[in-house]
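Field guide to reading this record: the first block holds the primary sequence, the second block holds the structure written as C-alpha cells, and the final block holds curator observations. Each block starts with its own label. This record concerns ATP-grasp domain-containing protein, catalogued under organism Algoriphagus yeomjeoni.

BLOCK 1 — SEQUENCE
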Amino acid sequence: MGDQGKTFLCISNFFKGNAFLTQLKKQGNRVFLITSEKLKDKPWAFEYIDEIFYMPGQDLDWDLELLMKGVGGLMKNHKIESIVALDDYDVEKATFLRESLRIPGMGQTTGRFFRDKLAMRIKAHDSDIKVPAFAPLFNDDDINQFADHIPAPWVLKPRSEASAHGIIKVHDKESLWENIHQLGDNRLYYLVEHFKPGDVYHADGLMLDGRNLFCSVSKYLSTPMEISQGGGIFRSANLKFGSTDEKAIKKANTAVMKAFGMKSGATHTEFIKSHEDGEIYFLETSSRVGGAHLAEMVEAATGINLWAEWAKIEDALAKGYKYQLPKVSKNYAGILLTLSKFQHPDLSSFDDPEVYFRVPLEYHAGLIVKSKNQDRVMQLLDDYAERIAREFSTVADAPELKKFH
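BLOCK 2 — STRUCTURE
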C-alpha cells in the first residue's frame, strides 16, 4: 500500500469530484480542497475532506496571487505532495501553482494543450493528427486567407471555454467579419474553424506514466453544441466493443496523448468522424473526467469509476507503488439528459430494470441505462428521449447548464 499518507491539494471551480476526494481520503491521505465561495452550500463529501478553503470570485476571475499566498500559508505547516485540478477551469490554476511552488506534475506548457483550443490544434496539426482547418484571429490577412480557401460554414470558438457555450456559427465571410468586429479586443481569445458535419465521439481514458491504461469510446447521439444552443436532449452511448470505429478512435486518442505529453490522470477527448470523407478528426481534449455524468455512464458500461481510479493513480504516484487497474467489464450503457421545467422531476415512471442511475441535478431530467445488449440500450434511449421531451423538456429560462460534457 506504499508508505504513510500524503497531502493532496485539490482545486475545483465546479461542484464535482466527490468520488475522487473520497477515494483519496480512503487511501489514508490528507485532503485539502480549494473551491469557489459560491459553492459553499453544495453537498461536498465533507467527512472525507480535511479542510476546505473558499476563494472569492467567479470561475474565471480568481486572483492567482491571492491563491498563491493562501497555498503558501498552508505549506508552512503542511508538505503538499500533489496538486490536482478537478475541472477544466482549474488546469491553469494548478499548473501555475505547481510551477511557482515546484511541485511535480503537469506544468504550464503542457497544461495549455489540455486547455487552449488553439494550442491543441497547432500541436495536433504539427504532429500529423487530422484536425478541421482552423486559423487564429490575430492577423487580418490570415483570416481572409482562411475564409477565401476553406468553404463555409465556419465556427468561431473561444480558446478556453469548457463547453460548447460561446460558439458562433457563421455562413459567409461578411458575417464572419461582423462577428470578429463585435468581439473587439477579445478576438485574441477566439479561433475560427471549418465546421465539419459528422458524428462526434468521446474517448474517456486513464493514463499512467504516458501509457493508456483504459479507454472507453462513446458517441454523442446529439452533439453538445446542438444542446447548448437550442435546448433538446443530450444523449451518448458507448460503442460496440472491438468495432472499427472504436478501434479508430482509440488509436487516434493514443496519438493525441503521446503528442500532447500527457503523463498520468484522467482524460476526456472528442473526435469527429466526417460525413464527407469518413476520416477521424481531433476536436479537443481535457485532462479531467468528462462532465454531464458521463463518468457514471462509463462506469455502467465498464465497471470502472474514472474518479476513484484517477484518485488511486495519484495516490500510487505520490507513494511510489504500482497501480493496478480493476477488471474491465463489457456492458452497454447510455445517458440522456435535458433541462427540465420542474426543479425536481419525478422520473419514477421510468422503471425498466435497465435504469442504472437517475441524474440528481435540479431542473434537469436525466437517466442512465445499462444492458448486456446494445440494441436494448439504443431502444430505451429513443423511447425515453421521446417521453422525456414530452413530459419534462424545456428550453425556457431554467438555470443554464454550461457544461454538457
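BLOCK 3 — OBSERVATIONS
Residues 157 and 345 are 33 Å apart (CA to CA).
Confidence is low (pLDDT under 50) at residues 396-405.
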